[in-house]
């Protein structure tokens, strides 16, 4: 097996690209794919102040590393979610990476800041843990990015993640979600610009990148994600991909090129009016945003007594 570029010994084969690469040219390939995604979707310019949502896993650490290698100014954001020992361990990976690469890591602890953790929030709201987790992270992402003056928030969603979400949204015809499924969510009042530069790369490629460049990352999956429907969609798509390499990429790319504009236009025509949350100021279709309602339930305090980090930080 020879590298497609230099004809030396190849390290990895990428069936969907019908190509093999040595270590050096594989790293260049991955970084070029990120560069192409940034350029194709006009994610941000070279002078942008970037905040990367970091979990300690392979994807978020890899994209932080790649952006740094490409010359961008990117800080990391780690959120302590209070999920048993998993959160403590993942924090160590994020901190060690930041120290090793002389990068700035912003940390927010959910319990210290808001008075509850994800397991408590899930029980109080009677929601699955992933729902309470996602809601909490999105709220903190927005707050830190806006309060910190960042131009853009980067997440580590890769091709497999996007294909699985697209598959689920299409299976259930979640038109509101399909309208927002894009590698770039534009900034609007109360929300920062959000982008997904790993849209062209899959999980196997990201794991291999971490191994080749020496990124030590959290291997364990979140213990609260067991049975998550998203994971079953990934398994189904992987089965199809094994017989038809490139299916996932074509699924996502053709949606973005042909269907996404249709759903986006329809969503704009039937847009919901948003107003500032009566407690935290985040835009919401109701008086109190979903996160403030979750916080009140999880802490057992009236929402007006819950500290407002926007006013006290």
Description:
With 313 residues, this protein is of the alpha/beta class. The chain has helices at residues 23-40, 58-69, 84-100, 110-114, 118-125, 129-147, 159-171, 175-180, 203-213, 229-243, 247-269, 290-299, 309-312; strands at residues 12-14, 19-21, 49-54, 73-80, 105-109, 152-154, 184-185, 194-195, 275-276, 283-284. Strands 5-4-3-6-8-7 form a 6-stranded mixed sheet, sandwiched between helices. Strand 1 and strand 2 form a beta hairpin. The radius of gyration is 20 Å and the shape is globular. Mean pLDDT is 91; it is low at 305-313.
List the keywords.
Rossmann fold; 6-stranded mixed β-sheet; 313 residues; 13 helices; two-stranded antiparallel sheet; disordered C terminus; 2 domains; 10 strands; alpha/beta
Question: Given the structure, what is the number of helices?
Answer: 13
Unreliable stretches: 305-313
Oligomeric nature of the chains:
single chain
Give the fraction of residues assigned to helices. 40-55%
Distance between the termini: 56 Å
Annotated CATH topology of the largest domain: Rossmann fold
Structural class: alpha/beta
In the CATH hierarchy, the architecture of the largest domain is: 3-Layer(aba) Sandwich
N-to-C SSE series?
EEHEHEHEHHHEHHEEHHHEEHH
* CATH class category of the largest domain: Alpha Beta
Proportion of β residues?
5-15%
Strand order of the largest sheet: 5-4-3-6-8-7
Strands, total number: 10
Main sheet summary: 6 strands, mixed
CATH H-level superfamily title of the largest domain: HUPs
Question: Gyration radius, to the nearest Å?
Answer: 20 Å
Mean pLDDT: 91
Question: What characteristic shape results from the CA principal axes?
Answer: globular
Number of domains: 2
């Amino acid at each position: 097996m020879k590298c497609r570029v230099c004809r030396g010994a190849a390290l990895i084969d990428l069936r969907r690209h019908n190509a093999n690469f040595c270590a050096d040219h594989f790293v260049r390939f991955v970084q070029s794919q990120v560069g192409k995604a940034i350029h194709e979707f006009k994610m941000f310019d070279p002078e942008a102040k970037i905040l990367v949502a970091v979990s300690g896993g392979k994807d978020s650490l890899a994209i932080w590393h790649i952006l740094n290698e490409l010359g961008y100014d990117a800080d990391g954001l780690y959120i302590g979610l209070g999920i048993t020992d998993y959160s403590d361990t993942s924090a160590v990976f994020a901190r060690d990476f930041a120290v090793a690469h002389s990068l700035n890591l912003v940390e927010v602890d959910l319990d210290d800041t808001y008075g509850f953790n994800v397991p408590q929030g899930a029980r109080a709201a009677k929601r699955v843990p992933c729902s309470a987790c996602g809601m909490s992270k999105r709220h903190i992402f927005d707050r830190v990015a806006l309060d910190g003056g960042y131009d853009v928030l980067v997440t580590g969603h890769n091709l497999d993640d996007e294909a699985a979400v697209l598959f689920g949204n299409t299976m259930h015809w979640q038109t509101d979600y399909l309208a927002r499924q894009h590698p770039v969510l534009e900034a609007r009042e109360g929300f920062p610009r959000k982008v997904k530069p790993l849209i062209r790369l899959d999980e196997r490629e990201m794991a291999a990148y971490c191994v080749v460049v020496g990124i030590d990352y959290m291997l364990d999956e979140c213990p609260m994600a067991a049975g998550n429907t998203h994971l079953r969609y990934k398994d189904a798509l992987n089965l199809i991909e094994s017989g038809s390499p490139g299916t996932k990429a074509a699924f996502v790319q053709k949606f973005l090129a042909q269907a996404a504009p249709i759903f986006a236009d329809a969503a704009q025509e039937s847009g919901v009016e948003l107003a500032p949350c009566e407690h935290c100021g985040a835009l919401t279709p109701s008086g109190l945003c979903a996160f403030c309602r979750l916080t009140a339930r999880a802490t057992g305090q009236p929402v007006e007594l819950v500290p407002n980090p926007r006013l006290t930080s």
